[in-house]
Here is the input.
Amino acid sequence: MKKELTRQRYLDLYYFMRLNRAVEDMMVKLFRQNKIVGGLYSSLGQEAISVGTAYALEKKDWLAPMIRNIGALLVKGVRPRDIFMQHMAKYDSPTKGKDGTSHFGDLDDLHIVSPISMLGDLIPVMTGVAMAGRYLGQKIVAMTWIGDGGSSTGVFHEGLNFAAVQKAPFVLILENNLWAYSTPVRKQVPLEDLADRAKAYGIDSYIVDGNDVVAVYSTAKEAVDRARAGEGPILIEAKSFRRMGHAQHDPAEYVPKEMRAYWEARDPIALYERFLSSEKLLDARSKQEIEEKINTLLAKEREFAENSPMPPAELAETGVYCTGDDCHKIRAKWERPIAEVTPPRSSVEPVWTVAGFGSGKGSGGANAPIHFGDTQPAEAKRAEARKPAVKAPAKVAPKKTVKAAPASASRKARR
Amino acid sequence: MPKTNGAGPNSSASNGSQVTFLEAIKQAMFEEMERDPAVILMGEDVGVYGGAFKTSEGLLERFGWERVIDTPISESAIIGAACGMSYCGLRPICEMQFIDFIVCAFNQITNFVAKGHYLWNAPAPMVVRGPSGGGVHGGPFHSANPEMYFVHTPGLKVIYPSTPYDAKGLLKAAVRDNNPVLFFEHKFLYRRIKGELPAGDYTVPIGKAVVRREGKHLTILSYAAMMHTSLEAAAALEKEGIEAEVIDLRTLLPLDEETILNSVKKTNKCLVVHEDTKTGGIAGEIAAILFEKAFDDLDGPLMRVTSLDTPVPYAPTLEEYFLPNAKKIFSTAKELARY
Here is the structure.
């Protein structure tokens, strides 16, 4: 870690890492009291990644978390009560009990897209967000996370390749915590550095120590700035370790003791505290103030969450469709002149040009041959071409030779 | 009414005249993109080439590279990106070059796009459209009717039109709908079916079936290409003194139960014709609805004429055997009429 930020930023990073851990500690207690309905997934030891990367975003930017990115949600402005209530399936939770964990979002205000359990799907979705932001002239960056395990999905490839081709302002954090449930990374990917995957897409990548929050933040900030400047998507591999099992039920006995000991000694919050006190950015008193602030906040948030009721059963039947206009309030927020994307200014020569490749155009016209479906137009065109040239002056548009089919044309009749 | 500047399909000139099914789809996209700059088109070869079936020809020329986007061969990326765009207020149309390939994006559609509104109040106003159906010797991977995978997915709307008028009006309605809509275009109809389109803007309501031919002896429910085949069979049945009522379902999700029930309560007999394979086809769902809501009105079993429970075979002899046709509908309807 090196000193390069303002004091406030250093303390923000510290606050959010502590908050992240405290929120999860409290959820472990709730889990043991059977107040958490489903599974509980821990980001213990990976807080620097969630916090450091999300802290590099601006308010207008978009993010989509994975299951362990509670810290990123907190940085973006999600209240701890919402995270508690999601896990407890409460009626006042963002999804009103319809889904749990970090599976919620906020399109209008916080610009958070909800994840689903299938890994990698967020990559094309956030590519689309990035493309839409660029199209609307918003100068936003979209960010999401993927694990070492999730980086082997097909949609990781499709999404990152599409983002790269489109030069979308998109930052992908590859959180390498060495374990995908019980399977070690070496059994998933035959690479030392997962950042090498970026080469396949012709995009830039960084490797960062995921337990060094300052390094994570600085790297993410540089990547976000570059993506915003139009340099295209960037992949950051943050190397870390999953200290808990896949979820609360999993004691993770498959993890070698030495490996766990190594990473426990590199706890990101403890490392950061040492740095902050050596740089005289944090003394015992301000540390205590932060702890008290978090404890007071979380006591209140937990109380609110516990007092929230379970959703009424009939809610299960509602909301499959958006009906009426009230349920869709999202409007395209144009920050560029609409005239730029509407005719006549949007009109172009339909010709592609690729450096070193040349250029080309489509084969068009009403009688253009099409893929399976109907060979009649092409046949008619050939018949037309066989006619003597004098009968068809060059300037005259070709006659329509396709016969109108009767409305009740059947396959049999047309064969 | 949208103005056109020469490039692209000229709506003004086409309206009031006979246009093909394909042209109707092109007009719908053209007019919606003209009307609303939030509408964009994405897909494989949709830009410079104008689409494998030329349904998007002229759109790039008029609306430019930012709104007509040629993509890599990545159906999940197309659907996923469209979903992300819809979260930002855009209304993307995705083309699947052949609708067979929609299953490559199955997870993205069924788990991400379809569940968003229910789970976290995130509507995804987007359209996925593409050429479907057989009868053109496309073989097992270019002839599919995969609509029922998606009819089984709450959160989606599924449209499968049979006429140029409906294709245009329903596609426009789909673009304006606040939910994800899958729009199946039977490729057999693209250039074989023509129809007159009214001048000016219009939409056709999603979720409404239409009676194509009135009759009192039995009801034939169908959609897409088989709607035309069913009408042909109905004409032949008339000569035998059997008056079949032919209903075009148009939308499969949500299904217009009211129109179905009204007709069956009148005719007391129901035959469902679809090009989709038999097991798990919409006919089974309709049978269940009739048993639940019109059991006392039925004077005969629900019958169905469908494709075989096999992949779509390639050879013309095999495919012809595989598909329903007017003769099969005719003989099944006669059998049903005897009850």
